[in-house]
Amino acid sequence: MSDSTGGGESGSTSGQDAEADSEPPLRVPPLRGDDSFEVEETSEEGAPPSAKRARMNEEDQALEEGAKPVNMHGDTSAQASLQQEDEVTATEKGEGEQRKEEADEGENEGPVSGGGEKECHQNGEAEHDTHGEEGEMKPAEVHSSNGSADSPSEVHHLGLDFTQNPQMLTGSWSEYSRFPENYLKGCKWAPDGSCILTNSADNVLRVFNVPPEIYSYNWDLLPEMSPALRMAEGDTVYDYCWYPKMNSLDPDTCFLASSSRDNPVHLWDAFYGDVRASFRPYNHLDELTAAHSLCFSPDGTQLYCGFDKTVRVFYTDRPGRDCEERPTIVKKQGQSGIISCFGFSPCQSVYACGSYSRCAGLYSCQDGTLLALLPTRHHGGLTHLLFSPDGNYLYTGGRKDPEMLCWDLREPGKVVFSLKRNVSTNQRIYFDLDQSGRYLLSGDTEGVVSVWDTQTAPLDGEEELLQPQLQFQAHWDCTNGISVHPFMPLLATSSGQRQFPWPGDSDGDSASEGEGGEVVMSPQETRQDNTLSLWWAGPLGTPAEGAQDQSPAAEEACGATAAV
Asked: What is the pLDDT of residue 527?
C-alpha cells in the first residue's frame, strides 16, 4: 500500500493536517474486564455503532466505578461474560477461567436468550456458535494457522462466482475528497474479515467496519462507509500490514504495523487508534532509517522489515531498536536492491523477498539463509508477491511491468504461466488470491479488474499466457488495490493515482479556460476516482433465500463479524 522511494512515484505528499483524529467517530461503550457490561443497540437512524472501542467518557467511568478500559492480555473473561449473560461479580482471572468452563459446558444449549439486545449476540455469540456448532459450520482450511479467522470464517456458506460481473454494494468517496489528489494506495481486509484498512496520499491509515446490512442482504439500505478510525503518520507511508492473528473479539490482538519516511515502524492499536509501540531501525551510521516493506511472521511473533540489501527482524514483544540483521548479499552474492515486498509460505518455514532489482529470493525463516534466487524475468522492480495456499507456487508482479509470473517452487526458476495486466506507472498495483488459491485478481492503471482461474492453467508443458476469465471496469482511475474477503464473496478495491497536469495547465487561468470563460478540465482531471469500493462477487438472486435458510448459529456468527 505504499509507493516506495526506490524511484518513480513515491507519493511524496507530505503529512497533511493531522485533522485525522485518532479517536473513532462512532462510539460504543467499551467492553469491561468484569462481568458488568452494558449493551448499546444499533441505531436505526444512522450508521451502526463502530465495533472499535472508544475511550470511556465520564459517565462510563461513573458506571464502572473506577474500572479501567479494556486491557485484556490473555484474559478471556470478557468473552466468557458475553456468552453467559446472567453471570455477575467476578473480576479475578481465576474466576474468569471458571466462568469460561461453565460457558463451555452450556455450549450445546443454543444461543443465549433473555437479553434480546442485538449487540450482545453480535459480540458474544461468535465463539459460542463457531466452536459449539462445529458439525454445522466448518472453517476454511486455508490459513488455518491464523487464529484470527477461527470465529467468523466458520460461516463460509457462499463461494465466489465469477460467471458474471461483481455487483458494487457501497464504498467511501467523500472521505477522500477533503484534500486535492488524495488518491488511495491500496486496501487490506483484516484477517478476521471484520474491517478494511486503507492507505492514502494524505498519509492517514483508515479503518472501515463492514456495514452490518451486508450480512442481512439489505443492500438497498447500504449507506456510504465512514472510517471508524483514522491514524495519521508523519510522512509518506511506505507499507503497512495487519497482525496475522488479529481477532476483534480479543482487543489485545487488534493492531497493525506501518512504516513511513523518516519515522520508526509504528504499531497501531486498532481499537483506539493510538501508537502501541515503536520499532526503531538504525543504519551503520546509527541514523534512524525507514523500512520500505513490512510483514509479520505467520505466528505474529516477528516483524520483518525490508531495507536496501538487508532484512531486519524485530520481535513484537520487544519494542525498541534491538533486532536481527539479515543481509541479502553475502560476499557479493545474493539479492541486491531495496527489499520491497515479503511473503511467507503457508506450508514451510520459508519466506520470499522481492526487490527493486527485479528479482525474488527464497530464504529460511530460521536464520535467513538464501535458499534460491529466482531468475530476473521482470521488466521492473517487484512490488508485490504471494504464495499459493498449498505453498507450491509463487506469484510476482512489478512496477511498469505488464506481466505477472507464476513460479513453481518445486522447480525453482520454472515459470508455469504468465498473466498480462496494464501497469504503466511506478505505482504499486496489488493483486490477491482467494482462500482456495483458484482465483487471482488484479487491477490495472486503467481501472479494469481482471480475474484469472489458475485451475485452467496447464500443469505440464511449456509456459503460456493465461487468459482472464472475467474483466470488469471497477473504477475510472487506476485500481491499485484489491483484497478478497477471508470467507465471504466480498471484494474491496481502491483507486487513484498521482495526476500530472498537461503542458500549459500551469500557464495560468487563461490556459485552462474555454469559450465563454468555462473551465476546461484535462482528461486526467476528469478521470480522477479516489474511492474505496465493496463488491459482491457471490451468486446474485439467491443470497436472501440463502440467508433465510441459515441456521440461527450461522446468522449470529454473521452478526458477530458485522459488529466486529
From this structure: 65
